[in-house]
Write a structure and sequence with these properties.
403 residues, Porin, 3 helices, globular, 24 strands
Length: 403
């Protein structure tokens, strides 16, 4: 039995070695094994099987006056265990070829599909400071700059997250990074009249577009901006049965920066979010006009301002704080029939304190987060009035082994 267990890894190693010798490619395997635990005193709106907490749910009062959502929950999970492979291929003249793919276990666990999820799946061409990437990578609005957190929230919903299929050109020298990308949707889609779906963007026929500019130095300090455009088609037919040509188009603007000196890091990001519901953040849109005969509708997005700041210090023992804030400024026109995520939240903030212990291949971490959301009723412009607060306390622990 022991011989059979050793045979498969040996054959894989032999096959990889032979292939590398024949093609001139170089391989690097990498990954991590991770376990996370959380407890929270309130039911919450979540994604990815519950390990990403977006916001605490509003009060739901029963006939006896008790709040149904004032109920705790806890979970231990290892969904973020990752395995991947990087391949450096042969050169085409001055062009270096390469590829990468990795998977984790953050797929569905409820019986509707497999638990494996593709993360990065990309082929690259590099010549000098120029890069061309085709495949699935992190969206520029999220991966422009990440905060440091222990939890797998990575700052959501203040920090956009997600990996998407794209075609991306990037210029990256020691001081400047410029990129332009055409993006589609894969694992997470926009929210529309038929729920969350990727069809709204596919039916649009227009990919999302993002333009990024960044200045950075060798110490890791940087400042940058991202401009993003997306246009979706919520419906192809109206409720009255007519073919309609409806669109929700919006720009998203982002500024970010990081200062790093020795063991100290300060980072922050601010963003105007208009209907960016295809990420783990708040937002949506509403109807501004409806044709009385055909039922064709016009729309306007809600304007959400979201920001975060992160201060960290240390190396072996590394600790710090994270703060996030979101504010709903409503739409630019009167709207009805709001569609989105957290559209009845006026504002929300999160404060987190964290500490990690880091040694070769191992990381141990603890984090405590307090989140307060202010719920209310939407006025004619989608702004939220007459608010009340709900609070969620969330201690979180993590251990990770990397290889």
């Amino acid at each position: 039995m022991k011989r059979h267990k050793l045979l498969i890894p040996a054959l894989l190693l032999l096959t990889t070695t032979v292939f590398a010798q024949e093609t001139g490619s170089r391989f690097r395997f990498y990954g991590s094994i991770r376990n996370d635990f959380y407890y929270q005193n309130r039911q919450a709106q979540e994604s990815s099987e519950g390990f990403v907490m977006l916001f605490p749910k509003d009060k739901q009062i029963d006939e006896t006056g008790k709040d149904i959502n004032r109920a705790s929950s806890a979970n231990l999970f290892n969904y973020h265990t990752v395995v991947g492979l990087e391949v450096t291929g042969p050169k085409w003249g001055k062009v270096q070829t390469s590829g990468q793919f990795d998977i984790d276990f953050r797929g569905s666990l409820n019986g509707s599909g497999g638990i494996f999820r593709l993360r990065n799946v990309v082929m690259r061409l590099r010549w000098g400071y120029h890069w061309l990437s085709i495949g699935q990578l992190g969206h520029d609005l999220g991966h422009s700059l990440y905060n440091e957190t222990v939890s797998l929230n990575v700052g959501a919903p203040y920090q956009p997250t997600g990996r998407v299929p794209m075609i991306k050109y990037q210029y990256d020298d020691p001081h400047v990074k410029l990129s332009f990308a055409l993006n589609w949707q894969a694992q997470v889609g926009s929210i529309g009249p038929y729920g969350r779906s990727r069809e709204y963007l596919r039916n649009s026929g227009i990919p999302e577009m993002s333009l990024k500019a960044e200045a950075h130095n060798a110490e890791g300090s940087l400042v940058g901006t991202v401009i993003h455009f997306a246009s979706i088609r919520p419906r192809l037919t109206s409720d009255e049965g007519y073919k309609v040509d409806e669109r929700v188009s919006a720009f998203n603007f982002q500024l970010y920066g990081r200062y790093r000196k020795g063991l100290f890091t300060f980072a922050g990001k601010t963003m105007l979010n208009q209907n960016y519901t295809q990420s783990n953040t708040l937002g949506g849109y509403g109807v501004t006009k409806k044709d009385p005969v055909t039922g064709e509708q016009q729309y306007a997005p809600l304007r959400i301002w979201q920001s975060w700041a992160n201060v960290m210090y240390g190396r072996k023992w590394r600790g710090g704080v994270f703060g996030g804030y979101i504010k709903n400024f409503g739409a630019s026109k009167p709207v009805t029939g709001l569609i989105g995520t957290g559209t009845n939240i006026d504002q929300m903030f999160t404060l987190s304190a964290m500490l990690t212990y880091n040694i070769p291949n191992w990381r141990f971490g603890f984090e405590y987060s307090l989140t307060e959301a202010f719920y209310g009723t939407n006025d004619a412009y989608g702004k939220v009035r007459n608010t009340h607060a709900v609070v969620n306390h969330r201690p979180y622990a993590m251990v990770m082994f990397s290889f």
